[in-house]
Specification:
This protein is an alpha+beta fold. It is 29% helix and 26% strand. It is elongated.
């Protein structure tokens, strides 16, 4: 990583003056953002870059730009143009590992290209288009930490700025999401007794207890929703034991449910099974499922992933969820975003802002 915070050989390293332009082309800005490593917890370089970039919009359009501290060296950015009745928001952090951008005729590739740095670029470009046409009373809010704890959204929720509508950006292929599943994550901890594996009766295998519990957890029925579909379960990690000839005295697993409704029955089942097998079930994350509203003539979808919307908890207004790119390539080595969807997203975001400023939206 170069001292400036971007990778050698990246798009930014090829630009002699990356902060020189007041307005960057949509694709240039996307690549510039992708080329800054901002994996969760290390967002400062991209925050610094965006602060410099947005400062020029602040000056040109008589706006207000704030850095809002979520944690030390981890700031949200809020840029408001008048009274912010509508806020365009997404996250600045990415999952690891970082890899720089490249471009071909149809796509921009690189970590964060669709999740969610291309979305940041589209929102900024939409803002420039709106301002050039005389539209005000909207804002941009870019937050840290969405990929792990949503600390940026939680911090923003504690200090709302009067926004009545929140347009949250995540890769939905430019379809407006009518809902998103929630998340319920557990750490399962089993404890056993060491013994020589030739004499298993002298010990107790934590791994066996954990596997028995996981088998039951995988088997119990999960709720379904007519809009969001079925809840799902992923056993994400399993670890434990010392050697193949030793009865395991410890084992752990991390599991995640993608929920579509009330978590009470799922929590009760996990607690019952854990108690029956004498293992500990620690709940480490809960984010509720959300139902959302249509707007304009936009095509709709339902997504299974979790977003910052539950962490905002309505404090920034009625939420909408839409963005360019496919979630199917986010978090992968093939992450990319279609240039055509980036361009379309600029128009969609501008249309949504104008609609919400003019007539508002139907109730959720």
């Amino acid at each position: 990583m170069a001292a400036t915070g971007f990778a050698r050989g990246s798009f930014l390293s090829e630009c002699s003056l990356p902060f020189a332009k007041t307005t960057m082309h949509l694709f240039e800005l996307t690549r510039a953002l992708v080329d800054i490593d901002s994996t969760t917890g290390h967002e400062k370089p991209v925050v610094d870059y965006l602060y410099a970039h947005l400062s020029r919009l602040e000056s040109k359009y008589n706006a207000r730009l704030d850095r809002l501290t979520a944690e030390p060296d981890r700031d949200n950015l809020f840029l408001s143009f008048g009274e912010p009745h509508v806020t365009l928001s997404t996250h600045m952090d990415t999952v690891p590992p970082f890899f720089a951008s490249r471009e071909d005729a149809t796509h921009i590739h690189g970590r964060g290209s669709c999740d969610a740095k291309g979305i940041i670029a589209a929102m900024i470009t939409a803002a420039e288009s709106l301002l050039a046409g005389g539209t005000r009373n909207f804002a941009l809010l870019f937050v840290v930490g969405e990929e792990r704890s949503s600390i940026g959204a939680i911090t923003a929720a504690a200090s709302p700025r009067g926004s009545r509508f929140l347009i949250n950006g995540e890769p939905t292929e430019n379809h407006l999401a009518l809902g998103s599943k929630g998340a319920l994550r557990y750490e399962l901890i089993a404890r056993g007794k060491l013994a020589h594996s030739a004499y298993p009766q002298l010990g107790h295998s934590a791994i066996h207890s954990l596997l028995d519990a996981l088998q039951e957890i995988r088997a119990f029925p999960l709720p379904s929703d007519p809009v969001l579909g079925p809840s799902t379960l992923n056993v994400g990690t399993i670890s434990g034991g010392r050697a193949p000839n030793v009865i395991a005295d410890g084992a752990r697993s991390e599991i995640m449910f993608r929920l579509v409704g009330d978590p009470a029955s799922t929590r009760a089942a996990v607690a019952r099974i854990a108690a029956a097998h004498k293992i500990e079930a620690r709940e480490v994350l809960f984010s509720p499922a959300v139902h959302l509203s249509p707007l304009l003539d936009l095509p709709t979808t339902v997504v299974a992933f979790t977003t910052d919307i539950p962490s905002f908890d309505g404090s920034w207004g009625q939420p909408f969820l839409i963005g360019p790119g496919s979630i199917h390539v986010a978090h992968t080595a093939e992450e990319r975003i279609p240039k055509s969807e980036l361009t379309t997203a600029v128009d969609i975001y501008a249309r949504m802002v104008r609609q919400l400023l003019t007539t508002g939206a139907a109730p959720v």
